[in-house]
Amino acid sequence: MTSTGKRNNQKLTTQATDNHSDNTLSSWSRQQRVAMIASFAILVLLLAAAACSKQSSKPALVGVSSPASTPAIPATTTTAALPPDIAPNLTAAGAPEKKTPRKRPANVTYRDPDSGVSFLYPRKALLTAGYQDQPELTAVGNVPMNFVQPGGITIATVALPGNSYPGTDFASAFFNVNVNRKISEQECSHFAFVDTRNADGEPLDAEKVTIGTNKDADKEEANAEMEMTSNFSASAFKQVETQYYHNFENGACYEYVLGLGTEGFATEGGIEHVNRDAVFARLENILVTVKINPTEPIAEPGPGAIASGKE
Questions:
Q1: Distance (Å, whole) CA 9 – CA 311
Q2: 63 or 180, greater pLDDT
Q3: For position 304, what pLDDT does the model report?
Q4: Is residue 311 very low, low, confident or very high in pLDDT (cuts 50, 70, 90)?
Q5: What residue segments make up the domains of the chain, in order of their start?
Q6: Would you say 158 and 174 are in contact if contact means Cβ atoms under 8 Å apart?
Q7: Residue 90 CB: number of other CB atoms within 10 A?
Q8: DSSP letter string over 193-242?
Q9: Confidence band, pLDDT 50/70/90 cuts, at residue 65
Q10: What distances in angstroms separate CA 240 from CA 23, 54, 127, 152, 169, one per listed residue?
C-alpha cells in the first residue's frame, strides 16, 4: 500500500511539474511573441521617422515664394517739391521729344557751275537742264533764241505745271535761260526779232528795264539793267506771248525768256482768259533770283548742273 501510494504521489508530483513547465513555456512564448511584435513595430516607427527626417532636410523645390517686387517708379515725376532750378530740367528730360515734321521748301535752287547761273524755281515746276532734250511746251512748241548772232546754248528751262490755272485757257508757261559767248556787249543789247505789235506794223525798239537780282554774292540784292523786248503770235487755236531779257556778264550775253501759251476760245464752255499779268509776275519771281558767278569760258552745260532744295 505504502509503495503504491508513494508511486502515485510521485506520478502526481511528476504530472504537476510537467503541467507547470508546460504552462511556463506557453506563457513565455506569448510574452516573447508580444515583445517581438512590439520590437518590430518600434523598428518600423524608427525607420519611418528616419525617412521623414531625411525628406525634411532636403531644400524645398516647389512653393518657394519670390521676394516682393519693388514697386515701379511712376513715369511722371512730381517736381513741385523739388528746387526751382532742378524741376524744369527734370520735366524737360522726362517729357518725350516731339518730332516736328520738316517742311519741304517751296522753292528749289538750280546751279550750273559751267555758266555760273543759279536761280530759284518752284518745287512743283519741271526743270530741264540744257544737256537734256527740251520739253515740247503745249501751245508754244519750240521757243527760238533771240540773239543777233548764232552760237547760243540753252542752260535750263523751267515749265510751270499744266494745272496751274484750272478753268482758264492756260496751256503752259516757262522760264528759259540761254547764253551766247560769241557776241559782244554791244550786240547783246540787240535782238534778232522785236515786238511787232505796233499799230503801224513797225517793229518796236527794245527797252531798258531794271530787274532786281542777287547776282552779287556780297549783297542781299542788286539791281541789274537789262534790255527787254517781247513778241506775240496768235491763231484761232493758240496764242503765244514771250518776253526776252538780255544781260552781258562774264564776257557773255545771257538771255532770259518768259513765255505763256493759251489754247482755244476762252468764251466757250465757261472757260475764262487766264490772267496774263499774274502768270508773268510768277515767272518774273524766278528771274529776280538769278545770280551769275564769275566763270571760265564755257562749253555745252553738262551733267554737273545742280538742282537742290533751298534751305
A1: 148
A2: 180
A3: 52
A4: very low
A5: 109-309
A6: yes
A7: 13
A8: S-----TTSPPPPPEEEEEEE---TTSS-EEEEEEEEEEEEE-SSEEEEE
A9: very low
A10: 152, 109, 20, 22, 12
